[in-house]
User: Fold this.
Amino acid sequence: MVFNSFEFLIFLPVVFLLYWFVFKKNQRLQNLFLVSASYFFYGWWDWRFLILIAFTSLCSWVSSLWIGRSRQNNIGKAKAITAANIVINLLILGVFKYYNFFVQSFADLFLAGQSNGLLLKIILPVGISFYTFQALSYSIDVYRGKIEPTKDIVAFFAYVSFFPQLVAGPIERATNLLPQFQQGRTFDYNLAADGMRQMLWGFFKKVVVADNCAVFVNAVWDDIPAHSGSTLFVAAVLFAFQIYGDFSGYSDIAIGCAKLFGIKLKRNFSIPYFSRDMAEFWRRWHISLTTWFRDYLYIPLGGSRVNKVKILRNTLIIFLVSGFWHGANWTFIIWGAYHALLFLPLILLGKNRKYTNLVAEGKAFPSWKELGQMILTFALVVIGWIIFRAENIYQADQFICAIFTQGLLQKPLLPFAAIYITMMIVVEWIQREKEHGLQFTNHITPWLRYPIYYALIFLCFFCSPIDSAPFIYFQF
Assistant:
């Protein structure tokens, strides 16, 4: 089931009403109902996927209980159990997501591409990378003593399978999300109202901005040689806004939806296209994943506490693994390496923590220097998105080379989606100090707020393409 579907428009209010009016008085039943609703939501694609998420959840829950018992008096045993759980979960992820990639790559190198009989006819379960990482972080945190293992299997299953963020994040931590399922929840009107506003903003970014961009982007990518360099350039820029509107829109819907149930998820995007360098961009883009790699891979490798050579090595590893996490394709690995190359000079110059504040903080407009920095950073990100979007390395090379031809000086095709992009940019710039575009303060009169709500609802229903594009990050 997807957020932008008729089924979800029925599913959400039914679950909301039952959650607050039928199961409100019993926290355990409330959690059990959420698990059931989440499994129904996830099984809507294919019920067989439920076996996998249930096994992942059970494996992490049981192993963490053993880890908790062994941590005090037998640290070696606790470490072995933690390692075993990590291996089991990564093996499952590897088989479904990476087995065919490795087999085909081996066949291309040593068997002249003949992989017949070696490839598995399996489909990638939706969201497997997200809930696997979420389950792994729990057992690792138990081993590190950051959280005590819970005996409440229902609360833990709710933590792993909570439907708003199940298939595309944010990737939550047990230290933040699990305690919320272990305590009573009361309906908070202000939180729920803010959640509805955030969902509306997320739907606008997805079905109006991203989906309209997708129509133009897909048409151009389907026939690269037929378009001028200028049109290819526009398509590259539009894909940058497509993937942002698509993924950050999903995150806004997920976070807003969770608020309806009294659950607070962590922010996943923080105006990344207003970044002044690549380090700032990665602090603001897919925050839950970048911080996951920081805490569970970069820091264990030594982080920034080692010499410069090892810091550079650790950074390169992080970006390569991040690229590979996104998919079993060499384009993702090269995309990760590309961002690593842009990031490494900032580390060498000691400028990777230069911009931790908000751009043009307290000002209406950025300075000329800040504007130039944002444009340059965005341009570098766009080049990376071309590699990310391409089906293979050859196509990425073809697209980039075709841009930088005489055709770049021709008048480009300008899609109507540019108007929606402009609307999104203006709102997010004005609201850049807020968590989302529609987080209004009380001093803004309803006479101003409600026309904005109605206008966005109108756009979502009447200005989105007939055929909605699937969420891009579902494939990861």
Summary: The mean pLDDT is 90. The longest helix spans residues 189-222. The CA atoms of residues 77 and 463 lie 58 Å apart.
